[in-house]
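DM from R.C. (forwarded with permission)

"hey, sorry to bug you on a friday — could you get me a structure for this? deadline for the figure draft is monday and I only need the backbone to look sensible"
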Amino acid sequence: MSRSLGIPVKLLHEASGHFITVELKSGELYRGSMAKCKDNWNCQLENITFTAKEGKVLQLEHVFIRVSKVGLTVIPDRLKNAPMLKRLDAKIKG
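My reply, with the result:
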């Protein structure tokens, strides 16, 4: 991970291994464990619960999501205590 990456990208990398929710611009929802993410925000999820905009729910093993299709990404609340954010908070305060 490069030092020149912005805070949102670093936070997305911190979410690897955690369950996240991704809502596409089309209204479809994917909730699963983030396996990988790239600096351009494209990400791969595993063990996904997919909810179509009509409400149909499916279980999927792997999904690759392109950032151009993403409307919203929800990361776990526990990442607010991520070491990267603590270092940033210390820089801001001090």
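R.C.: lifesaver. The CA atoms of residues 28 and 52 lie 5 Å apart.
me: no worries. The helical segments are 7-14, 83-93.
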